[in-house]
Design brief:
Blueprint (H helix, E strand, L loop, with lengths): L14 E5 L3 H12 L3 E5 L3 H9 L4 E2 L8 E4 L6 H11 L4 E4 L5 H9 L7 E6 L20 E5 L6 H13 L3 E4 L2 H24 L6 H4 L4 H7 L6 H10 L1 H23 L6 H17 L12 E8 L4 H11 L6 E6 L5 E8 L4 H10 L3 E6 L1
Parallel strand pairs: 1-2, 1-4, 2-3, 4-5, 5-6, 7-8
Antiparallel strand pairs: 6-7, 9-11, 9-12, 10-11
Helix pairs in contact: 3-4, 6-10, 10-11
């Protein structure tokens, strides 16, 4: 029985019940099935359940099922109801949920007097703009944080089971209190969703001539605006206070920049604008991973003909040049049969990449740090 990481044994065994066969539930099911775990799926929608089963995310429940672990993957507004029901039906199982808000469901369960010894809230920081079992992927959790919210009553073996679940799915377990979690996701997830949606909403009635100029930058900043409104209304309402706090701070920042630009020649106006951009540089530099700048990369742009096999040839040439691609994005040029491939590499390999690709006939549009 193998994990998603080659050479490592899976930690979770026995039966796992997943309630909610949408994107996250089906993705967890797919990953656990790869590890040989008996996955039992449940969903209030028979069609959704059948679809997830057809995709191989698990099996439908049967009388006599006795899961060791229950994972609640329902919308935020029914998480408390579902957790309470699962704890009642399966008193010997450990129950977790993957909702993106942790404090409000916990408060509701406590108000009801539910015994929470076997309950541990958790949240994998993973997802996609499109939901449903049809969008599920077994590798969606690889390298992503998985927040685990324990309390003083949590048995060691229950905590270990949720940690094992995260590790088996290739995620990185991180312990937080529910309060810490909700403040954190307000900043790095919930407010970015609102900002992206508000910005993208400005395009709804924009002239086509303006939208034709859109490049990769605006696509990057509005990508998550395609998310489902029904789900986000629930998330934002459940985490309203931390979200409002961040939105108020952001509104103040926007107002300062707007006031400065009303008269760009006024004393201090240009500094205000420059400080806003510079502070953004500092902030993005703190983001972990390749998209942050804790490790600096150099980028260059290659013009790629819009023809079959061209990207494969480009990556093949980079491999022959022994250049590792740290990041990659492709943008199509409006009105032209070519794409612009922006490639990030280690600074030590930049010149080798540019010279080597040029010698192989590739057109280099630019190189910069």
């Amino acid at each position: 029985m193998t994990d998603l990481v080659p050479g490592k044994l899976a930690r979770v065994s026995g039966s796992v019940r997943i309630v909610g066969a949408g994107l996250l539930g089906a993705s967890i099911g797919l990953a656990l099935m790869k590890n040989g775990v008996d996955v039992i799926l449940a969903d209030t929608s028979p069609a959704q359940l059948r679809l997830a089963v057809d995709y191989g995310a698990g099996r439908a429940g049967a009388e006599g099922d006795a899961p060791d672990l229950v994972i609640v993957c329902t919308p935020p507004d029914v998480v408390a109801d579902t957790v309470a029901a699962e704890l009642s039906h399966y008193p010997n199982a450990v129950v977790t949920d993957v909702a993106s808000v942790k404090l409000e469901p916990l408060r509701e369960l406590r108000r009801r007097g539910v015994n929470l010894v076997n309950y541990i809230g958790s949240h994998p920081m993973a997802g996609r703009e499109r939901g449903g079992a049809i969008s599920a992927r077994a590798d969606i959790f690889l390298g992503r944080p998985w927040v685990i919210c324990r309390d003083g009553e949590t048995p060691t073996e229950a905590l270990a089971l949720i940690e094992d679940l995260a590790l088996d799915l290739g995620a990185v377990p991180i312990e937080m209190t529910p309060e810490e979690h909700d403040r954190s996701v307000a900043l790095v997830s919930h407010v970015p969703q609102v900002v992206a949606s508000l910005l993208a909403a400005r395009f709804a009635e924009a002239p086509e001539t303006s939208l034709a100029l859109a490049g990769q930058g605006v696509r990057d900043t509005t990508r998550i605006a395609a998310s489902a409104p029904e789900l986000w209304v629930q998330i934002l309402a459940a985490n309203a206070a931390p979200v409002v706090e961040q939105l108020d701070l952001l509104a103040g920042d926007l107002a300062r920049v707007a006031d400065a630009l009303r008269d760009p020649d006024a004393p201090g106006a240009r500094r205000t604008a420059a400080d806003a951009i510079r502070d953004g540089n500092v902030g993005v530099a703190r983001l972990p991973g390749k998209h942050g700048q804790r490790r600096m990369f150099e980028t260059f742009v290659v013009m790629v003909d819009d023809a079959s096999g061209q990207l494969g040839r480009l990556f093949g040439d980079l491999g022959e040049l022994e250049v590792n691609v740290e990041d990659f994005r492709l943008e199509h040029s409006p009105g032209a049969q070519l794409g612009l491939a922006e490639i990030s590499v280690d600074p030590a390999t930049l010149q080798r990449a540019v010279d080597g690709l040029s010698a192989r006939g590739w057109r280099i549009a630019g190189a910069h740090a």
